[in-house]
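seq as requested:
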Amino acid sequence: MKKKLFFIVIVFLFLLNTPYILGQPLPTFNSEHTGLFRASVVKVDVTPEPGDSKWLLGYGPRESTGVRDRIYHRIVALDDGLTQFFLVQSDFCVMSPSEYDHVATMLQRELGIDPSNFWWSLSHTHSAPELGVPGLPEVFMGERYKHEVDTDYESFVARSLVDGIIEARSKLVPARLGVGWGFSMANINRRAIDENGKASLGMNPDLPVDRRIGLIRLDKEDGTPIALIANYAMHGTVFGPDNTEISADAQGVVAEYVEQKTGVPMLYINGAAGNIAPIYSVYPNTGSGYLNQFKLLLGDKILEANNKILSTTDKVKLFTSSLILETPRKANLGWPSDLDKYTRTTKFGANLVRLPVRFLKINEDVAIWSLPVELFCEISNEIRDRSPFPYTFYYGYTNGWLGYLPTEKAFQHGGYEVEVVSPYTPSGERDLKESVLGYLQGEMRSIKTYNTKTDVVNRPELIRSDADGSLRLTARKGYAQGPEIKYMPEWSAFGWFTSEDRVDWHVDVERAGNYEVILEWSVSDEEAGKEFLLKAKGQKLTGIVAPSGSWETFKAEKVGSIHLRAGRQKIVFMANKHFDKGALLDLREIKLRIVKGQ
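struct tokens:
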């Protein structure tokens, strides 16, 4: 990119229409594809080998004795010419957010994918293997996790997902997108209330439920289908705790049924199923459950909704964003060490849960938001009803699991979801609705996806301290300054071309102190060796840009330390000395990690 020889190679490969580097297809974020919507889907089998017993997640500890049906990653890739977005649906129950973070880091380092553009949603089947460390469930139900973590299977699942995304990138084709609603009575509220007002797990037709199907269809240019994405709220509990066969439960059966009818994969994205069960629930084994009935109860309803999507478009623009919602944590509740970034203690000693909320806007009428929780349906129903977007979908069990988030009213009745597996207080509902509705009705509504000028650069924003006090200065959130500096979305990095180029970040430093500076960059051996400068409020750090191996190889390494004052300020990264030719580096991120607070 910086050297003439490298540029000639890229041009040659482009003319051959086979843009490869390091053995993998390059994402084509160039002007030729700007405005051209493309999509693809990949289905990856992650079923354990025959005879390989696994600990199942969803009820008490139990080992698998066989496989009823196979389990998969289903991966959809969307590319509007400027933004690539990856939605993964996997046939598992829940996972720790730290597992999502682990895979997101793999994708960022290997493929340059910004975590904001990678969502990993689990279908919530209770008959699939555990996935990685327990996370928060170990705090609630430690007796379930006396056995060792299956790190080999976790590594296999993670690697399969990354390889699946690589394949999805290579299969992107010009596409069209359609959206619609459906309706199914395959679910029921599961909060049974007795004469004393006490809740227990059961079925309750008198309490709220969400029976709407949110559907997205992807087609090729000629109208033949690529994939369906169906959003429906329902626990994966047709099979109960006595079942020991690996199964994707009703979600998997419905997906396979729709796939047989349409000829293309379907992603089953669960919704706010915290208090919603399947209409047939907790049967003891795969022979007694009414599993196939869901083909008609839900599968046929998805097909009906699909048939009603009569209009699709190839003019698709994507916008992703996120916010951190902080809400009080239950008193005297422990917290696992792998989730330190998802909690914070105020200076008054109050413990907070830090919930990451993700948003995806598609054109001007589709808004999708997600959480790593089991949400009560009343909350997502109200947000959908009050949203300014005609198609507002909630994707639950996405990017991890941080417990059940009930309504304030549910705390009056107690029960499993409130008393056992929720880290939240009654104020959680209010805090969530205020944050999400405020964002949907305000900032997200004001962002015009058809204004591609802002997407060509990047999306600068105020950077706040993480829960541990560290700051992440990503290229995506920096302000480019200078005559030639360019943001490269395929690498999530800035490319320097002159010594006058620089990047500014506006930050809100929570704690004054000394911060380690960890630089993530790439540079060729020929261009390495130039001097950089990092400065903030009179403080400076200088250093030499070391070689990373090549322009395509990113490296993260501590390069020194700097003192930061508390409060809002600007942090600048630039060349420390003038140079006449060549380039400084490609900069992906600067992480500032506090080592001594004041």
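The chain is about 20% helix and 35% strand.
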